[in-house]
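step 4 of 6: structure.
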Amino acid sequence: QKEVEQDPGPLSVPEGAIVSLNCTYSNSAFQYFMWYRQYSRKGPELLMYTYSSGNKEDGRFTAQVDKSSKYISLFIRDSQPSDSATYLCAMSAPYSGAGSYQLTFGKGTKLSVIP
Amino acid sequence: EAGVAQSPRYKIIEKRQSVAFWCNPISGHATLYWYQQILGQGPKLLIQFQNNGVVDDSQLPKDRFSAERLKGVDSTLKIQPAKLEDSAVYLCASSLRRGQGEKLFFGSGTQLSVL
């Protein structure tokens, strides 16, 4: 079992739809949970990050973390064609020596928002 | 604010040849990362520098990959000799500090094709 599982899609939705993207994980040591957006031929850019269980909202985006179920979600409301990209979940945990941590990415879900 | 600069954008080589990638992080960012992203996968950390010292190179194939960060600013990643399985996008990222909640800024990457 991989540490982080993410359905690669592709996911295609009409403009204005609510999008739900999800990741599951197996490592209980993960402490920070992030969502990165990656446009074609570009590097990932941080969209949102959370530390604890619960919801965090930023404009049309809501990140949700359920540590008891080891499950994180990203919701996009009123989706726009400009949201078409690959969405990567990422999680970090302390690693070996003091002060070190390891960031583990999911495979990414490719999203297309159709006008 | 200028972003993370990487060059070249694309590189095509034959197996057993050598190749080098260059990265200039955001000014003032102490931590620099090299990630490998194989098509359809999330980025995988190869090496992490704090200023000009290596913090984590546990996933770097040291028999063929090497990296340096002279003077704690620019960095180069080298592959010698290249194998077919090294075909991937090599992403450089930087962050202001080292820590779990730190925001990583990625460059656009170098796409390497090994024939």
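step 5 of 6: annotate
 - Chain A has no helices and eleven strands.
 - The mean pLDDT of chain A is 92.
step 6 of 6: archive
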